[in-house]
Write a structure and sequence with these properties.
Blueprint (H helix, E strand, L loop, with lengths): L2 H67 L7 H13 L5 E6 L2 E5 L2 E8 L5 E2 L5 E8 L2 E11 L2 E6 L14 E6 L5 E5 L5 H4 L7 E4 L3 E7 L5 E8 H38 L1 H10 L3 E10 L5 E11 L5 E2 L1 H10 L3 H22 L4 E5 L10 H9 L9 E6 H5 L2 H12 L3 E7 L16 E4 L1 H4 L9 H13 L3 E4 L5 H9 L4 E2 L10 H11 L5 H4 L14
Parallel strand pairs: 14-16, 16-17, 17-18, 18-19, 19-20, 20-21
Antiparallel strand pairs: 1-2, 1-7, 2-3, 4-5, 5-6, 6-7, 8-9, 8-12, 10-11, 11-12, 13-14, 13-21, 14-15
Helix pairs in contact: 1-2, 1-4, 7-8, 7-14
The protein binds ligand C2E and calcium ion (2 copies).
One calcium ion binds next to loops.
């Protein structure tokens, strides 16, 4: 996966990790609120059912009592006394009476003379009860009565009796309806016939139709059901309240998910992990930059420089990934790979040019490794390789850091491998250590070479370094030589070798072999005068 793709995946995964728990929290808050409102609606509907059923039971009992008395004169004093008795015995009934031709002839209140008109029957229940839901009697005009009539007797109940329960909310609808016809009998608040028309007569049920949470109960004995409808806004209010505590929790969970994703993404797209996978996938190879003898223009050696080509074709520069490999503890693996690649490349190069010297770079950490000497020994085991063919380059920092490092340099030189101080002049400012230290070459850093022939204040530093090196009998190699002028100044100052784009950039082993072969020949007018005859030139010598 390339870096951009990995980043995109990480961002998307991160967003999902963050957003998903929050959405989930909102969803849970909504569901919990629907549950809470549903429970409330069911409780209300059940309350109404309890009151309505008690009313129906008491009414049925009162009528049964009167029917059982079987008095031919239904408004006799004895029968009216029986009505009073039934009335008093029942907590829900307002009155009990006898009906004839739609008129209440007498009741527990006494005789009503010619009778009180009850109005039309709204419907007849499946049990034969004739129902008038809202009757206004002349003796109590302000009160609406529910009149249930059966077998010539009637019970009168306050219209609102069943629905007189505490709801906590003014806009909650409650009521009773006929189970057979699905007509509303009593109720308060709005009534939508669809609430009950679609309901099937099973156990208690609750349904959220988007506008209301509607709970329905069915009477086991009688032909009616009850409903309670709680408006949707109580669901959203409740969800909002629950979300206030759940959403921060969701966000927290999201962050907890996000952290490992980000860490993983970083691990996957960070340079160290890319270096690791480049090592596994063999994306590293070496190019060789010729080192020429300034006096003759002859190529006497080459520096192995690591190259990294990514699968997408792009290159990563060593001055970017080498420091990262050093910081992340991967440099030893990288150096081992360099030696492995060298071992492979040098056989062919040295077969063609046995005198050539190949230098390669080591880092400070390599000098502290107990395995380095073994690795170098193995490298020297390459076909055609002799110790004099091998140079190692290390920076001042690398060598001078510690005593073990100095000992390592000593051991390397004991093996016959020559040592160069790389980037000379950019590290420690004091040059005095050189007198106490065994190295073979100084590589003058490009930064100083760049100033040669210019008026820059630092231009004399290069000269100073060259003089120093001479007095210490060290051989100098100038790095980053780009112009003939620089080459001339360096040659005149007594610098023996140079490396730079003036001569060649780093190249693959085959190109290097060709370059070495042709380097002894006249190359350009400037080099012509100094060129030796064809043939193997002198190796990089101290
Ligand atoms: P270095 O060891 O100082 O290598 C010389 C660098 O200067 C190389 O850059 C080379 O291509 C560049 N160079 C040479 N002549 C010229 C020139 O005339 N003009 C300019 N502008 N540049 C020139 P490169 O290959 O990019 O390597 C950069 C650094 O990465 C190296 O500096 C070295 O410190 C490190 N490096 C490269 N390969 C390895 C390796 O195998 N192991 C270790 N530890 N470090 C390496
Ligand atoms: Ca170098
Ligand atoms: Ca250098």
């Amino acid at each position: 996966m390339n870096r951009r793709k990995a980043n995109t995946v990480a961002v998307v995964a991160g967003l999902v990790a963050l957003v998903l728990p929050v959405l989930l929290a909102l969803r849970i808050a909504h569901d919990l609120s629907v549950d809470a409102v549903s429970a409330q609606a069911l409780t209300l509907s059940e309350d109404v059912m309890r009151r309505a059923e008690a009313t129906a039971d008491q009414g049925t009992a009162a009528v049964a009592l009167l029917v059982a008395a079987n008095d031919p004169n239904r408004c006799s004093d004895a029968n009216i006394a029986l009505m009073r008795k039934a009335d008093v015995a029942s907590s829900y009934l307002q009155s009990v009476g006898a009906v004839s031709n739609g008129r209440l002839m007498c009741s527990s209140l006494g005789s009503h003379g010619a009778g009180l008109p009850l109005g039309p029957v709204a419907y007849v229940s499946s049990k034969g009860a004739r129902i008038r839901p809202a009757v206004r009697l002349s003796i109590a005009p302000g009160v609406r009565m529910l009149v249930l009539e059966k077998s010539g007797y009637a019970v009168l109940v306050h219209h609102d009796l069943a629905v007189d329960v505490f709801t906590g909310h003014p806009d909650v609808s409650l009521g009773t309806f006929a189970a057979s016809s699905r007509m509303q009998i009593t109720g308060r608040g709005r009534f939508d016939p669809r609430w009950v028309s679609a309901a099937t007569k099973t156990g208690p049920a609750v349904r959220f139709d988007g506008d209301n949470v509607v709970a329905i109960h069915w009477s086991r004995e009688h032909d009616f059901g009850t409903f309670a409808a709680v408006p949707a806004r109580y669901v959203s209010q409740g969800a909002h309240r629950i979300a206030e505590s759940l959403v921060p929790l969701g966000a927290l969970v999201g962050v907890l998910f996000l952290i490992p994703i980000l860490l993983l993404a970083r691990r996957h797209t960070s340079l160290p992990s890319l270096i690791r996978s480049a090592l596994r996938r063999r994306q590293f190879y070496l190019h060789y930059q010729p080192i020429v003898e300034l006096a003759t223009g002859r190529c006497v050696g080459a520096e192995a420089l690591l190259r990294w080509q990514r699968p997408d074709g792009s290159f990563v520069r060593p001055d970017l990934f080498i420091p990262i490999a050093e910081e992340s503890g991967l440099i030893r693996k990288v150096s081992r790979r360099v030696m492995e690649l060298l071992r492979h490349d040098v056989t062919a190069i040295l077969a063609a040019h046995p005198e050539l010297t190949i230098s390669f770079n080591l880092s400070a950490e390599d000098l502290h490794s107990l395995h380095l000497l073994d690795e170098l020994r193995e490298l020297l085991g390459a076909k055609n390789m002799l110790p004099r063919n091998l140079h190692v380059e290390m920076t001042e920092r690398g060598i001078l850091d510690t005593d073990p490092a100095r000992k390592m340099v000593h051991a390397i030189r004991e093996m016959g491998i020559r040592v160069a101080i790389d980037d000379f002049g950019t590290g420690f400012s004091s040059l005095s250590y050189l007198t106490t230290f065994e190295v073979d070459y100084l590589k003058i850093d490009k930064a100083f070479v760049d100033t040669l022939g210019t008026t820059a204040a630092t231009s004399h530093v290069a000269m100073h370094i060259i003089t120093m090196a001479k007095s210490l009998h060290l051989t100098t190699i100038a790095e980053g030589v780009e112009t003939e002028l620089q080459a001339t100044i360096l040659r005149d100052a007594g610098v023996q070798y140079a490396q730079g784009w003036l001569y060649a950039k780093a190249m693959d082993p085959a190109a290097l072999c060709d370059f070495v072969t042709s380097s002894g020949r006249p190359r350009n007018p400037a080099a012509q005068g100094n060129a030796h005859a064809n043939g193997a030139g002198p190796a990089l010598a101290t």
